[in-house]
Design brief:
Blueprint lengths: L1 H34 L3 H27 L13 H30 L9 H27 L2 H27 L6 H28 L5 H12 L6 E10 L2 E11 L4 H19 L3 E9 L1
Parallel strand pairs: 2-3
Antiparallel strand pairs: 1-2
Helix pairs in contact: 1-2, 1-4, 1-5, 2-3, 2-5, 2-6, 3-5, 3-6, 4-5, 5-6
Length: 289
């Protein structure tokens, strides 16, 4: 369990890097977007300002998750990380809708202007920068199985594509098609909403104890490989932050002693922990009749 808490500290480092990157990128995009009259770049900068808040929520969630178990939280505080992801997703969806409204309003009322080409260069530079942050956060998230940091990484990747789309819209507007720039802002808004929805769906699934059926079947097969296990009668799994908790009922020979049955439960626990990195396993044995 100590390793899980250490992993959360590592995830915090990734969240801090995201916050720093978004502060710099938001300031750059909003400033250049205003000076260059680019709706798309301004929308992208607005997206990054919300990413600061979203990353802060993830950071706070990771810090709370590191609090040890207490009388009111016997499983620890790991789900604070998932709640933080949920909060950040709602922020992203709200801002995405606002960006869509403003961009569509600009198109319908013909307020689009030809932005300065420098805005496109800023978009490309920012895309490369945030993509590097994405690669870093994704690598760490996979290593430590952090749902919160993986959500932040998905947001990073979305922002990289958004910045590329922004640059394309700005360049296209130089060829007598100024409406393409606010249209790119619409695409930006759609991507923000989609990313927020994906994170929201995953977070709510984990908070309501949803679990991937394919992964559950894989766990069941792993248990069936344990010597002495006749059959997995029932199994339930849930995600608790960066941990997986398993409750399983296995059938064993009715001829076994209590000690032999207990040894089988220990083998099941050790196999799941070592091979599938399952944090906690509760095994109940029943006689095969």
């Amino acid at each position: 369990m100590e390793e899980k808490y250490n992993n959360l500290k590592i995830a915090e480092r990734g969240a801090r890097i995201s916050i720093l990157a978004y502060i710099i990128l938001a300031a750059l995009k909003l400033g250049v977007g205003y000076l260059a009259s680019s709706k798309a770049l301004t929308a992208d900068g607005l997206n990054n300002t919300t990413d600061i808040v979203a990353s802060l929520a993830v950071l706070i969630g990771l810090k709370i998750s590191r609090k040890p178990a207490d009388d009111n939280h016997l499983y620890g505080h790991f789900r604070a990380e998932t709640i933080a992801s949920l909060i950040s997703s709602l922020i992203m969806i709200a801002v995405g809708m606002d960006v869509l409204y403003n961009a569509a309003h600009s198109i319908f009322f013909f307020k689009a202007q030809v932005p300065d080409l420098k805005a496109a260069l800023v978009g490309v530079i920012c895309a490369v920068a945030i993509y590097l942050v994405y690669r870093y956060n994704k690598k760490i998230a996979i290593q430590i199985n952090s749902s919160g940091l993986m959500a932040a990484a998905k947001d990073n990747l979305s922002d990289a594509w958004v910045s590329i789309g922004t640059a394309v819209g700005i360049v296209a507007s130089q060829f007598g098609l100024p409406w393409i720039d606010p249209l790119a802002a619409v695409i930006v808004g759609i991507l923000i909403v989609k990313t927020g929805w994906d994170i929201f769906r995953e977070a709510t699934n984990n908070l309501t104890d949803g679990f991937n059926r394919e992964k559950l079947d894989n766990i069941t097969n792993c248990i069936n490989e344990v010597s002495g296990v006749k059959k997995v009668k029932d199994i339930r799994a849930r995600v608790n932050g960066n941990n997986i908790l398993i409750d399983v009922v296995v059938r064993v020979s009715a001829e076994l002693s209590v000690i032999e049955g207990h040894n089988i439960t220990k083998m099941v626990e050790e196999k799941l922990r070592s091979e599938l990195d399952i944090t906690e396993v509760v095994v109940h044995v029943e006689p095969e009749i």
